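W.,

You were right to be curious about this one. When I first looked at the sequence I had no strong expectations either way, so I just let the prediction run and decided to look at it fresh. Below is the sequence, 165 residues in total, followed by the output.
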Amino acid sequence: MSLTEVIEGTRRAVDADPHNAAVSFSVDHVLKPGTRTEVEVKVRDHSFTVDEPAALGGTDHAANPVEYALAALGSCQVITYQFWAAKRGIPIDSIKVTVDGDLDLHGFFGFSFNTRPGFGDVRVSVELEGPASRERYEDLKREVDEHCPVLDLFRNETPVSTKLT
C-alpha cells in the first residue's frame, strides 16, 4: 500500500468517525542488572534494550535513553518527510537526518540545581535529494516541522503525570 493510499484511507476513517484519529501507545520497562532496561512495546509485540555506557554505571549493551530520544526525533523526521512529500506530491530520492544534542550531567546528577537535566540544545540536520526545486523542499520542511509528533514533544511542554504504586 502506498503512503498516499494510507493517508487517504486514514482520512476516510477519520471523516467517518473523528474518534478514529485518537491513538494511544503503551510501553513497559523492567530493570535488569546494572542500568539495563528491557522495554516491551505493548499491542504490537516489539521489544528492545536500553542501557547506559560503563562511564555512567551501565553495561553498554544498548543505546541510552537520551540517544533513543534523539533517534526517535530523527526517525520521526524521516517518516514525516516521507508522508508529507507523498501528500504534497514532492519527489524525494533520499532522506538523511542527523540529530545532535548537548546534555550537561550537572542536572542529571544534581550537582547543580540551576542546570536542567535534559538537553540544553538539539540540532537537526536534514539532507534531501531529489528533482524538486529548493523552494518546494523548503515548503516541505515547514510542513514537517509543523506536523512531526516527536519534534512537537521536543519543542512544547507536554503534560506528564507520574504515579508511584
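Here's what jumped out at me. The two ends are 43 Å apart (CA to CA). And, maybe more interesting for your project: The chain has a mean pLDDT of 95.

Coffee later to discuss?

I.
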